[in-house]
What we know:
Elements: H1 2-6, E1 12-16, H2 19-32, E2 37-41, H3 44-50, E3 56-61, H4 73-85, H5 97-106, E4 108-119, H6 129-138, E5 141-147, E6 159-165, E7 173-179, H7 183-186, H8 190-195, H9 215-225, H10 233-236, E8 237-240, H11 248-251, E9 252-253, H12 255-261, E10 267-271, E11 281-282, H13 284-292, E12 298-300, H14 312-323, H15 330-333, E13 349-352, E14 354-355, E15 361-364, E16 369-370, E17 374-379, H16 385-392, H17 395-404, E18 413-414, H18 417-421, H19 436-444, H20 448-463, H21 468-486
Helix pairs in contact: 3-4, 4-5, 17-21
The structure holds S-adenosylmethionine.
Amino acid sequence: MQALYDYDSYRIKAIELLEVESIKARRRADELDDGVAQIINSDFFEYRENHPGEQFDVVIGNPPFIRYQNFPEEHRTRAILMMQSLGLQPNKLTNIWVPFLVISASLLTENGKLAMVIPAELFQVKYAAETRVFLSNFFERITIVTFKRLVFSDIQQEVVLLLCEKEVQENRGIRVVELEDMEALSSLDLAAIHQLETKDLAHDSEKWTKYFMETEEINLLRSVREDKRIALAKVIMDTNVGLVTGRNDFFMIDAKTADKWGIREYTRPVASRSNHFKGIVFNSSDLEANIVNQLDCFLFLPPDVDFDQLPPVCQEYIRYGEEQEFNLGYKCRIRKRWYITPSVYIPDGFALRQVGDYPKIIINKTNASSTDTIHRVRFKTSLAPELIEVSFLNSLTFAFSEITGRSYGGGVLTFEPTEIGELPLPLLLPGTDINFAAIDNLIRERRITEVLDIVDEALLIRQLSYSIRDVNKMRSIWEKLSSRRQNRK
Ligand SMILES: C[S@@+](CC[C@H](N)C(=O)[O-])C[C@H]1O[C@@H](n2cnc3c(N)ncnc32)[C@H](O)[C@@H]1O
């Protein structure tokens, strides 16, 4: 900012909706300039509408991050119409930083440059797919500055600085600069940034997480994607959400609570958190251990009959729930009988929805189901489930998991069922010499590196003939992306 004020020939226009904020900006500008900045107290989109054709050499912005529904109707309508006139189709999930960004871009002169504070979800969310395509077509060079530590700890949202240039003479493409924290910005070596390799911008809607990789790494994963021998997980299994109780603290209970109310015989075993699974198999002794440890393993599920016909112990527990008004919550209210949780089926396996270290599939050897914190899996092939879940634990699938899943700060990687389905999953051939019980034990002891060594060797090197060098590269991609994510707490 200081640099802009250093040129007093600059004419700066700043637009801010709230009067109090615009007064702050005015004060700040007064400290720096001698009247070159004009602070306008207005809706940005309305200002734009009233000043068609006005262009700028540089746009700098720190837009609000607000979901579409929460943005005031009149500003939203204008913003959406303007985006449509640029050929974009925003939907209900669009966050309001999107129109601020693309409309600002459209205000630039031929050699214009743009700098904005943007949530890092630009890299990965579906609603920004169209924006990624727009930016990659509109700008010749994009530089993204990311921070290893969260910049605004109070909003718990990872942000990046997005720097875009319309016309450049060299180094076209995209590059990512990773800094430790905000302080590192002041000592940023601009000359060094110009030496950084720019990667070709793919003009498609793919996630940008891949640009954290070197060109060689991107190319390796692209070639793996084209390897016809490797199917996506969805070919082998269906992944669906877990059951929705509508009120976990009423429906999901531990053994003590079930016994206190005398309702244990009216419950079903259900896994409700990732920590219910220790290994890659969930068997009756795991379930028993969870019960003994007083985890919330039981779903209250009385007979599906009218209240009057229910056993008295169930009536009593339901009455307690009604006293707490749990029956009035939306999910419960819309049911025929609020206390009957639907869709309590027993899956072949589970897939974690949120992972800290790495994704995994867990075979279900019990009669347990899961709540919607854990996805339910049904295998579609006659292959032994053990073969599928061990196959999952390889460096290639892990590398892709970091690109396919999403992380919003906090270190956790989240998968929707469709995203589990999109993971490339090479499969061990039946008869491969692998000791499943030994792998399960290693996982329980959290010795994932040893597991990867075993599965990579059998599956990627011996069976699929990938070179040791390529497999090491897949491993290092996974390690790099996952430690980058986990450090962002
Ligand atoms: C992330 S804050 C940035 C505040 C300050 N300019 C800064 O950089 O520290 C986003 C600002 O955008 C303003 N804002 C929200 N909607 C707006 C709109 N439709 N037009 C102009 N400004 C808006 C908010 O009032 C808020 O001050």
